[in-house]
């Protein structure tokens, strides 16, 4: 599934600019990230306020939070994908020893899709409706490798075969189900062997069956290639299956973080409690009921 | 396919004399799509052979994955599109062949709330203008009456009445959706169709929106059609569930019955793919 395999620890050490003797523990270091959005009408909006976290090689960091809390903004900010004239990003994002926030666009393009990949909620956004999906996977390979187009096509076919869906190669996106489309998008994201995968609500538009299929794929990616994952999802089942550590974000700030098992057993913040124990809807319903009764105008 | 209260149209109803609010029989929708480059026209079947009954003050959840045809069905039931086959009865009256002018007063009885409140709300309009817009379209009442109603509706959805002059972008996602619901209620509809109206929101907001719907249902005897892919969430808020797969309804039952005795393989798959989180946790961490 992964052309050339994911970058190993040795290569991380080699490519880093730090002195040779120093051990690197993190793949990605985010320090004091701030994002402000400009708006013509309203006051400037601080979407992300001083967020700091790290991701180690091979680790899956889960990110949970209410809608509008800044989760997607963080993901976009990491890769320099926020519109520059509408946003101000400050802080530091270190990836393999390089500072991403001050990187120029051509260098960022070499990283996106090849070192750090991003998967969104709606596969329809990521896939071109008028191209066969096999070609779309080949396109990603072609952008990052010095290979002939024919070779890229062959590798794309192989990647699909490894997923057990070689027959989808000639399909157009609209001919596939939502779950199949998301698998194509995931293939695109993983095909160049990135070290970090950022998945932003990858299962939100899928039904239960497609969701569990995607979960299997993500688990496979984690186990086989030692890939690190930043998993942004309010799906507690997904986080429970995959996350090693978890951070909970509310209104642009981290309100709780730690090893997943600890947060699951002893959640502190009410939002953490509500999200992880959704199976016990009584807790969640009680929160909402009290709020409705007290006439609270829910802030979230 | 089996329904809790199903009985043949030809026989005299024995147990149940309540008439469904909306009733669809043999409903189908197809449309032409032009294939790119070749210019050939493809016939796309959005859904076919749909039989559905929704009873007054009850909630039916229509479950299926994206592309299954549920939104298209929702739009036909909201009289926004015409089916290409079959019939729809509303309050016992066959409304399938009604002309546009006759359909106009009917449209206020059925309102639709969509998934993305941001694109459903005009960012240039104030909350008051948004909520009152249906009233202005149906031409009833005075401006001060509209303002009063707007305040009441805002409060009914748990937003401060003083927010009349705010614009949608000043609201959070969940609040925007509540604004969209307030607008949907302005004309006092009988049937509310919510198409993934909670899907873009986080868990707390999802519960809040559904609880809000439930509270409004109790207060106004509203009838609901919930369209979603999330069976687990909706099972706690619906009386009946209809499962849709590739444009057909494959199973329709009272909610508890569906969970206890699923018949169709697709339904079984759906139920099997929803293990409780506790067991996922145990399996992974011991």
Characterize the structure shown.
By secondary structure, chain A is α/β, with parallel strands linked by helices. In chain A, 39% of the residues lie in helices and 22% in strands. Chain A has helices spanning 9-15, 71-78, 105-111, 123-126, 133-144, 149-162, 178-190, 208-225, 236-242, 260-265, 270-276, 281-293; strands spanning 28-37, 45-55, 60-65, 87-95, 98-99, 116-119, 196-200, 228-232, 245-250, 253-259. Chain A has a 6-stranded mixed β-sheet with strand order 6-7-8-3-9-10, with helices on both faces. In chain A, helix 5 (133-144) runs parallel beside helix 7 (178-190) and helix 7 (178-190) runs parallel beside helix 8 (208-225). Chain A is globular, with a radius of gyration of 20 Å. Mean pLDDT of chain A is 82; it is low at 1-23 and 295-300. Chain B has a domain at 1-107 and 239-265: 3-Layer(aba) Sandwich (Rossmann fold). Helices cover 36% and strands 24% of the residues of chain B. In chain B, the strands form 2 sheets. In chain B, strands 6-7-8-3-9-10 form a 6-stranded mixed β-sheet, sandwiched between helices. In chain B, helix 4 (127-137) packs across helix 5. Chain B is globular and about 55 Å long. The chains are: A alpha/beta (300), B alpha/beta (286).
Supply the key terms.
A: alpha/beta, Rossmann fold, six-stranded mixed beta sheet, globular, disordered N terminus, disordered C terminus, B: 286 residues, alpha/beta, 10 strands
Task: Give the SSE layout.
The complex is a heterodimer of chains A (300) and B (286).
Chain A: H1 9-15, E1 28-37, E2 45-55, E3 60-65, H2 71-78, E4 87-95, E5 98-99, H3 105-111, E6 116-119, H4 123-126, H5 133-144, H6 149-162, H7 178-190, E7 196-200, H8 208-225, E8 228-232, H9 236-242, E9 245-250, E10 253-259, H10 260-265, H11 270-276, H12 281-293
Parallel strand pairs in A: 3-8, 3-9, 6-7, 7-8
Antiparallel strand pairs in A: 1-2, 1-4, 4-5, 9-10
Helix pairs in contact in A: 5-6, 5-7, 7-8
Chain B: E1 22-34, E2 41-54, E3 59-63, H1 70-77, E4 85-90, E5 93-94, H2 100-107, E6 110-113, H3 117-120, H4 127-137, H5 143-156, H6 173-185, E7 191-195, H7 203-220, E8 223-228, H8 231-234, E9 240-245, E10 248-254, H9 255-260, H10 265-272, H11 277-285
Parallel strand pairs in B: 3-8, 3-9, 6-7, 7-8
Antiparallel strand pairs in B: 1-2, 1-4, 4-5, 9-10
Helix pairs in contact in B: 4-5, 4-6, 5-6
